[in-house]
């Protein structure tokens, strides 16, 4: 049982990292805590289902359109809502949370409830690893998670747009003096974060069913990982994903699956009391308290 818990704990940690990367990237660059993130995740899943089952598009085309549409929703959210609220943190949180609620409850109102809303898996086969059977879908999630992490590193270190992202994140005033348009970069970052939530959705959702309630769980898990790791810290996201991922898996194995979500909430409470800036947060704790 211990080996199985360790193997599936690793997979669960990669899933959490996939979920949190987009939320963390958006906050790190634009400073916006996008509380509609979970809803965008669910939106991407439902869009793929609609394109496949109601529009009869091929799977890969449906996935591509879903990612682009979700990224567009993120960009429009910033241009038409968040841009008018820049600097008003509470208003940004309330506005994005309201947008998320609107998306999720619209799907509930339209009747998107039930176990029929599923996405096709990459493969139904499985292999034995260290005496534990692991299906190819979960192996694919691990592979995509590693590829996405490598892509983000190359993108932010070796492309013009990625370097502009880093410039705004590190010192906005200096970046502005160099001709980097902060509002345009922030728009791209929110769209990019929304697109990453869609990538996570089309990768992870084939493991289960698409549901409105799943959006709230995704938001809580993304918040837990980013707060524990330190908002805006990529290294923090990776470390926190493994801490919370293994804690969830051991809790599920030895206490029961119903306790899993409590792990994320307890992790948020502990880190806010012990180190409010998170494990790798750059903000000084005294400044945050003030």
Describe the overall structure.
This protein is mainly alpha-helical and 290 residues long. 73% of the residues lie in helices and 3% in strands. It has a two-stranded antiparallel sheet. A hairpin with a 2-residue loop joins strand 1 (126-129) and strand 2 (132-135). The radius of gyration is 19 Å and the shape is globular. Residues 284-290 have low confidence and may be disordered.
In short:
With 290 residues, the chain is mainly α. It has helices spanning 2-30, 37-53, 59-80, 89-109, 136-158, 160-170, 172-177, 182-204, 212-229, 234-254, 260-274, 285-289; strands at 126-129, 132-135. The longest helix is centred in the N-terminal third of the chain and has 29 residues, at 2-30.
Features:
disordered C terminus; 12 helices; 2 strands
Tally of DSSP β-strands: 2
Given the structure, what is the number of helices? 12
What about the largest sheet?
A: 2 strands, antiparallel
How much helicity do the residues have?
Answer: over 70%
Residues in β-strands, percent: under 5%
- Main sheet: strand order: 1-2
Shape: globular
Describe the secondary structure blueprint for this structure:
Elements: H1 2-30, H2 37-53, H3 59-80, H4 89-109, E1 126-129, E2 132-135, H5 136-158, H6 160-170, H7 172-177, H8 182-204, H9 212-229, H10 234-254, H11 260-274, H12 285-289
Antiparallel strand pairs: 1-2
Helix pairs in contact: 1-5, 1-8, 1-9, 1-10, 2-3, 2-4, 2-8, 2-9, 3-8, 5-6, 6-8, 9-10, 9-11, 10-11
